[in-house]
């Protein structure tokens, strides 16, 4: 019975203000599968470090929270192959890979599973890619309790159905992620930040200079542009000097205080904006606190109200991009379409129906109320 595998929920066990009735804390994939199989009539939300648990709409119903924090630790580190296998509840802060790195920027306390489930990334996505790019294998428990693996420990392994890409960014609506296999990169020997007040229009010049920046970030509030250069000490010194001259900027060892930090307050409206690179300057001039990657066109904004949300969303759509609301206070969230228009919704509904026919996992949390 499910009661034998769970504990009663407490006042802290809620998602978006919706309280749970039970909490399960499995320590292995097999234990997680047993919980899911026993919870066939219950609605479920998966929780890791909780750093993004309140992103997105609240669930329509919530019986059970599956907490993955005991499902933690490194299964394997194949240094020679630049591969690691991590359990979903592993805090990314705790990773020790020696002279290698999992190049995923993350907020303090974020876990492997939560980062993949929400497809979050930071400034260095420009050079290293996102979670979807770095993930090469995955183990999941499907809503019927079946354990399924896809991909593997070979970077070019693309045989079969790519569950990794399907589960990345699915917000826990297709099942429970228990293990992830990632491609690693060597840890750079040196780094430098070039900080400048040059406009975002200078980005094409940086790219044309062939200095291989790891990140190019901008912040509308300070009017600052910052470029991260990584590599060998000699190479970093030479390339940073070139960028500094190009931007009339200064070279620093530490990033600006706004680097990689969302621009919204804890109780504010936070948006993710994605546009072509040529439209980044227009977003920075949009009378809003906007910051993020001028090298990829993925930025984050603090909206003042619903009118501001719609204005920023329209600006993105007209520019060939899109905008979603990641987080908002309940009075705003409850009357707002947080996802906005999303292409491929009919296909997403069919995938949901196939993987979770009872719509039990994170019901209503994803696009179109999926």
End-to-end CA span: 28 Å
CATH class of the largest domain: Alpha Beta
Rg over CA atoms, rounded to whole Å, is 21 Å
How is the largest sheet built, in terms of strand order? 17-14-16-15-19-20-18-21
User: Approximately how much beta-strand content do the residues carry?
Assistant: 25-35%
The SS-based structural class is alpha+beta
**pLDDT < 50 runs, ≥5 residues:** 155-160
- CATH fold-level name of the largest domain: Uridine Diphospho-n-acetylenolpyruvylglucosamine Reductase, domain 3
Q: Please state the second-level CATH architecture of the largest domain.
A: 2-Layer Sandwich
Report the average pLDDT across residues.
Answer: 94
Helix count from the secondary structure assignment? 11
**What fraction, in percent, of the residue positions are helical?**
10-25%
How many domains is the backbone divided into?
3
Question: How many DSSP-defined strands?
Answer: 21
Given the C-alpha coordinates, what overall shape results? globular
Largest sheet descriptor: 8 strands, antiparallel
Domain FAD-binding PCMH-type: 15-187
Protein name: Glycolate oxidase FAD binding subunit
InterPro entries: FAD-bd_PCMH, FAD-bd_PCMH-like_sf, FAD-bd_PCMH_sub2, FAD-linked_Oxase-like_C, Oxid_FAD_bind_N
Keywords: FAD, Flavoprotein
